[in-house]
Amino acid sequence: MNYNNTYESNIKEYTVTELSNALKKTLEINFDVIHLRGEISGLTQAASGHVYLSLKDKNNSLIDGIIWKGQASRINFKLEDGMEVLVIGRLSTYAPRSKYNIIINSIEIAGEGALLKLIEERRRLLTEEGIFKEEFKKPLPFIPEKIGIITSESGAAFDDIIIRVKKRFPVKILFYPVSVQGSEAAEQISKAINNINNLSRLNQNIRAPDLLIVGRGGGSLEDLMAFNEEVVVRAIFNSKIPIISAVGHEIDNSLSDYAADVRAPTPTAAAEIALPDINVLNQNIIMFNNKISSFVKNNINFNEEKYRNYILPNFLNIIENKIQSLDIINGELVYKKNYFMESSKNKISMTKMELYSPLNYCKNQLQNLFSKSRLLASVYKNLLDKKYFLLTNKPKLINEKYKKFINSIKLNYTKSSIALEANNYNNILEKGFALVKNESNKPIISSSNITKETKATIHFYDGKIKAILKNEE
Hints:
Layout: H1 3-9, H2 16-30, E1 34-45, E2 51-56, E3 62-67, H3 69-72, E4 84-94, E5 99-109, H4 112-129, E6 146-151, H5 156-168, E7 172-177, H6 185-197, H7 199-202, E8 211-216, H8 230-238, E9 243-247, H9 255-259, E10 262-263, H10 267-274, H11 278-308, H12 315-353, H13 359-422, H14 425-429, E11 435-438, E12 453-460, E13 463-470
C-alpha cells in the first residue's frame, strides 16, 4: 500500500497564481489596519503622482510602501530619505511577484529632531508672510457674554476650563469637541474655528461667541503636532473672533501660540485670562460707587454753600436806607438855610441900630443883602436839584448793578452745571466703571448687601447685563 500517494492526495494543490492570491487575501484580512514606524529610504516620486518608498528599522529590515496620488497630494510636509515617520495603512501583495508591501493612508513625522526642523521651517515661512505680526492681534473683550471652547471631549482641558469659568465669572459656553492629536486633528480644529466664525451666518438663531479658547493639555511633541500644522495656524489668523491659544506646554511655543491673539500656558490659565474675577469686580464696583457718591455729595454741598453766599440782598432796604440818607442831608440843608437867614436878619438888625450914614449907605447895605439872598436861593436850588437827581436816578444805578450781579450768578451757575455734568455717573461709567443694582433697582454698595445668591443688574455705559452675585463668606 502506497501511503505517500494517499497522504499527498489529501493536500490541496495550488497554482502559483492561486497561492499568491490566497496569501494576498490572508494578509489584507489580518493586516487591514496597521501602524508602522520606520525610516524612509529609496524615495521615488512617480510621474503619475504616486509615491514609492521603503521603510527600514535599525536592523535594516525593509518593507516597501506606496502612497497613492490622492493621499500624496494631502501631505503637508516634504518627504526625505532618512526621515523617521509613523504611517497608518494596510498590508497587500503584488500577486504576480508574490511581494508584500504596505499601502499608506496617512504619514506623520516621528523623530523629534525632524519634527523640530519641520516646525522651524514653517515658522520661518509664516513669519516672512507676516502671520505672527503684533499689528494683527485682536483685543480680548473685557467681559465676554459667551466663550467658545475647541478641545477634546475626553481630555481634562475642557473640565479645567469649565471649573475656572464657574469660579471666576459664569458665562455661556459653546463647546465644539475635536480630536487634538492624530492625523485628523488639524483638519478638525481648523474646521471648528471656521465653523464658529460663520455660526451666525449659518444659523441666525445661534449667536457666535465673543471669544475662543483653542487648546489641549500637555503631551509630547508628536502629540502636539496638530497645533503646528499650517491649516490650524491660518484658521487662527483668519478668525474674526479673538482667540486664546491654550496648548499645555511650558518649554516651547507652538505655531498656534504665535498666531493667536493671546497665548496661555495651560487651559486653566486661558480661562483666567478670558474672564475677570467677579469678586474683585464687585469690590471695585463698591469702592468706585462709594467714591462717586462721595464726590457728587461733596460737589452738591460745595455748590449749595456757594449759592447760599450769593443770595440776593433786600433791595427795598437799600432804597429805604438811601432815602433816609437823603432825608438827613435835606435836614442839614434846611438847618443851614435857617441858620443863614437868621444870621442875616441879625446882621440887618444890627445894621439898622448902627445906621448913622446917609441914605446911600443904607442902599448899599440893602443891595448886599439882596445879593446874598439870591446866592442863598441859588445854593438852596442846587441842593434841591441834587436831591431830586438822587431820588430819580439812584434806582436806575441800583438796577444796573442788580443786572450785573444777576449775570454773574448765571455765569457761576453755568460753570457749576458743566462741572456737575462732567461728574455725571453716566460719564464716569464710560471710563470703565460699572454700577450694580439689586432686584429693587437699588445700588449694591457693600458685600453685606449680598446674600448667598443675589440677583443683580450690572450697568455699563452702553447697556446692562443680568448677573447672580454669590457671597461665599
